What we know:
Chain A is mainly alpha-helical. Chain A is 66% helix and 0% strand. The structure holds a DNA duplex.
Amino acid sequence: MTPPRRRSDAEQNRARILDAAREYVVASNDLKLNEIAKAAGVGQGTLYRHFPTREALLAEVYQADVDALVAAAPDLLAEHPPIEALARWLKKVAEYAKVKRGVFAAATSAVRSDLAGHSIGPIGDAVTALLDAGKAQSQIRGDADARDVILLLGFLTNLDEAEWDTRAQRVLGIILDGLREEAKPQRARTRRAASRTGF
Amino acid sequence: MTPPRRRSDAEQNRARILDAAREYVVASNDLKLNEIAKAAGVGQGTLYRHFPTREALLAEVYQADVDALVAAAPDLLAEHPPIEALARWLKKVAEYAKVKRGVFAAATSAVRSDLAGHSIGPIGDAVTALLDAGKAQSQIRGDADARDVILLLGFLTNLDEAEWDTRAQRVLGIILDGLREEAKPQRARTRRAASRTGF
DNA sequence: ACCTGAACACCGTTCAAGT
DNA sequence: ACCTGAACACCGTTCAAGT
């Protein structure tokens, strides 16, 4: 059960690589592996030893952020009705994405790679929880799943700097409305509105 | 007014480059410039002479497809009510994107580059026409613009092969519903539903 | 066991030399 | 006026040699 002890120099290098990567991630969008190795003061090989793939590195860089997002979902659900919880959670995602666009790319790629598999990753689970709560109260359309939402959130990646405060909010609102179950009027409808137009 | 005649060999090279690029585009997602030059039987410099940027090349490769999409918008509006026209147009975009993902990337990048500017490109104009028609009948939310829609359509780029027929349709439906103006019940509402949850 | 950094591969881009 | 392709730059990845 005890994790195989690493040599202390290895442990230190690992930390330095992560620190360097974190710095680069806030600055520019794409991190250059060699540059990070250099900034961390280690050889390129050392970087590869600790993080065999670029994704492995990114996953660790964003670990804390992803964890925070995942943890927020049940908290929000405990305090708010499902739609409201979902709305707040989406807002939170946008805030993270604004500073570190990679948070989102990391989540997306995780989901993408697990297409065939069963798990959709922790972020996917968080979204599923939010959606399920809404479905249970017939406030979220029953056919939407976590991957739908994550795919749609991909728009954040293409946002320009100046648009963050205005457009991001509006588009999140469009997504949220699209996920809503039709408000039931006098007589319950059998098919969703979109079905009538061919979707 | 007469366009400055190109030398016939230049004209021919141009065509061959485009042909080669078109072939590569259907096969793989990212086209390698040197490879295309080689496949076209021209030097790399020739490729750059005709298409100074990668985008310039892609724009021409997808020209016909983009034109078709743009032309479809007014046609659909003439034959269908706005929402229905929009729904059909979105479906058409998805069909194109399925075969040539680049169609969409081309449209996106065009819009992206013109952020500060006035024009949002022909595709943007097509979407605007569809949205405006819907807004005029209070069927589309008044605050949505073409760039919102194009950003959301970006999800098509991240779709996996197997998802095209099922998920694509559903997500397009979500977008469409999100763009709808709230169906006016007995009493008109002052604020959109999403506004009540913080967006 | 882990690290280093030279070396290779790959691809985009330029430019001197050709026709 | 246009073309060619060697050459350079850049970045990811590997691996022989070191400690």
